[in-house]
Known about the structure:
Low-confidence stretches: 7-40
Strand order of the largest sheet: 8-7-6-5-4-3-2-1-14-13-12-11-10-9
Number of strands: 14
Distance between the termini: 47 Å
Structural class: mainly beta
Number of domains: 1
Order of helices and strands: HEEEHEEEEEHEEEEEE
Shape: globular
Amino acid sequence: MKAKKRMLKFFPRRIQVTAIAAVICCALCSSSTRAQQPSVALPFARGEELIYQAEFSRALLRGIDVAEFRFTSTSEHIARGVDDSLVLHLTGDVVSKGLFPKSAGFRFHQHMDSTADPEPFTTLRMMRSEEQGKRVRQIEAVFDHQNHKATWSELKPNERTTSVDFTEPIQDVLTAIYYLRTQKLEVGKSFEVVISDSGRVYHVPVKVTERKNLDTAIGRVKAIRIEPALFGNDALLRAQGQLAIWLTEDDRRLPVRAQLKLDIGTFDIKLKHVTYADAK
């Protein structure tokens, strides 16, 4: 019962990390030189939808469904200056299921909308809403790349605004997932991503640790594992934990699995379904 109460207290705030995840990170640069943006077509620009299932395990509790994640991406041309420019619209949803709504009477839903510039890949604008029971919170961020300043505004329940300077390339927690998929990952390399969240800027180290064959919903795949350092006193998450993410080594760079280890237990997130709008 105590473990369950601790999980309920911790999970709603931290689920964003997992979602943003299957998850997370990285404006990658090698330890000596910054990575170059690829000039190939983005693997997710053709109307991709990804659905994940999150399960919780601790002691005798094994594989209990707790949430569903859904990520979608679309692209469009908009008028910016003298030319029409391509922008990406990315959305992420995390919805409670299983243990929380049925056993604890607790529901949560997080929704994120991000607009990104595909080249160089960077965030332009982000909207986030968080519903936890009866509590509702809405946040908006606008990224001024000319002046390198991000403006974060809380719209609900309170109205307040914070501005922070950033260096390029800058990501929010949702665009960071997609930015990662554009990069060439090599085992043994260490990287860093710059992420702005809730009025602050974080430099997140990332290690590329291993290659592995995995059985997944899309079949047996060759995957590469990364470990973003999200936890610590001055990190994105002020707690103890470990996150690992596996991405396919094909052109799609699909996040097929993630594992989040915390003191309350382990969350396993697995890809369940992937579709493309142009395939319908």
